[in-house]
Specification:
Keywords: Membrane, Transmembrane, Transmembrane helix. The chain crosses the membrane at residues 29-47, 54-87, 112-132, 152-170, 176-194, 206-229, 235-255. The protein has one domain (2-261). It contains 11 helices and no strands. It has helices at residues 2-23, 25-33, 38-48, 51-80, 85-104, 110-135, 149-172, 175-183, 186-199, 201-228, 234-261. It is globular and about 50 Å long.
Length: 262
């Protein structure tokens, strides 16, 4: 089971990187922002744990989602001021751990958590527009991206190491800590660290902006999962959550395309 989880992580990071090769940084980020890693991990939790425990982890993940947005925005801001990738990585993870801890101290009803989680990506997109302006003008970053095969291997290896630590922790640590671990964007840590030194700040901001767009689907997945688990069975809740994630992703993609044409 553990190896299957790692295989899903490797596949998702590889697919996002291949999407960047074909369609550009923004599409890669949007794909990585979807719950392609946290979703399957959560489904495994559903199989292995009682429904109440899985619902608690889903809610804890939603509580931490604004901190996930802060992680991506902080990394983008660091890229725009010329910080190296390792400084952006350190600052971004400080933001998500500190922000996640602060949010965990709040006692909010589930409805308020839903609202914050669904609003956070919209706020993140506004912040990313500011980052894009700070990044300045340069060559277009919307087309295919050259990524050597050796770099693909390093991306996957880095994601596997990080995913292994998160999965092992999510199974044994308290619910709030498990939720924070699931909210940490594995691809959001790995992909910009390779994008920034090779392709620059503009490309990194485009990648992270796409990632924020993908988090609309992430939020929809966990909101629907938590909302349906008490009254429905695990299988129904899982199917409803997956359908919500795909619907949200499609809606955001179509809206983004329409705005881009305008």
């Amino acid at each position: 089971m553990f190896l299957l989880k790692l295989g899903l992580v490797a596949t998702s990071v590889l697919l996002a990187s291949l999407a960047a090769r074909r369609y550009g940084h923004g599409v890669a980020g949007a794909l990585a922002g979807m719950p392609v890693i946290a979703g399957p991990i959560m489904l495994f939790v559903l199989v292995q744990q009682p429904a109440g425990h899985a619902a608690a982890i889903a809610l804890a993940t939603l509580v931490c989602l604004p901190a996930t947005i802060a992680h991506l925005v902080v990394f983008a801001l660091c890229a725009t001021v010329g910080a190296p990738w390792w400084a952006g990585l350190a600052a971004a993870n400080t933001a998500i751990v500190g922000g996640g801890w602060a949010l965990a101290q709040l006692t909010l009803p589930a409805e308020a958590v839903y609202a914050l989680a669904l609003m956070a990506p919209a706020v993140g997109l506004l912040a990313m527009r500011h980052c894009a302006r700070r990044a300045g003008s340069g060559p277009p970053v919307g087309g295919p991206v050259a990524i050597p095969r050796s770099e693909l291997a390093w991306r996957v290896a880095a994601a596997l190491v990080m995913a292994a630590a998160i999965m092992l922790g999510a199974d044994v640590l308290p619910v709030m800590v498990s939720g924070l671990l699931l909210a940490i964007p594995i691809a959001g840590n790995v992909l910009p660290c390779f994008t920034l030194p090779r392709h620059g700040a503009q490309a990194t901001v485009a990648l992270l902006t796409g990632f924020v767009r993908g988090l609309f689907g992430f939020a929809a997945f966990f909101v629907v999962l938590h909302a349906t688990l008490p009254g429905a069975g695990k299988a129904i809740a899982a199917c409803a959550a997956l359908a919500a994630a795909l619907s949200a992703a499609l809606a955001v993609h179509l809206l983004h395309q329409r705005l881009a044409r305008r």
